[in-house]
Design a protein that fits this description.
The structure is a single chain. By secondary structure, the chain is of the alpha+beta class. It starts with a helix and ends in a 6-residue tail after the last strand. Strand 3 and strand 4 form a beta hairpin. A six-stranded mixed β-sheet has the order 2-1-6-5-4-3. The chain contains four helices and six strands. Helix content is 35%, strand content 38%. It is globular and about 75 Å long. The longest helix is centred in the N-terminal third of the chain and has 23 residues.
Amino acid sequence: MKSKIIAALGTVLVIAAVLCFFFLRDTDEKRIRGTLDELCRIGSKSNGENPALGALKANRADKVFAQRCSFNFRINSFDGVYTPTEIGANILRIQTLFKWIKLSTSDHQIEVDGNKGKIFFTGEFSGVAKHGSGSPHNDLRDIEADLVKNGDNEWKFTRMTIRKVLEK
């Protein structure tokens, strides 16, 4: 009787260990999602946020962007190739125009090939402008991004572009 209980407990422990390994291990896909989540934290702004805090967050752009990152959002003033410092400055410039900003993502599709990765996702920008009607801005875009893994096992964006879904 005791041996059956011990065998059952042992089986449960082995199954639990295997499940923990598969669900809690740090995979490249989880790290890429973490990079995307960090980008949303850097770009978001709470209502009444201190400008110094915004500057500190924008200075973390080097945590998510490679030394050169290409943007093609079909908005001339934002398209081009930038360094993390320039990206941080652009983030601050956008944040000064809004009372608050929330960035979020959904529908992630991640592909990893060695030290290169690609993620397709839906990005949502929500915010209220400081000037004008004060009505909320909500924008959804499908985005495709390329990433590269550095020597510290960190994934960083090298390219972001609006994904063409439907064209008129």
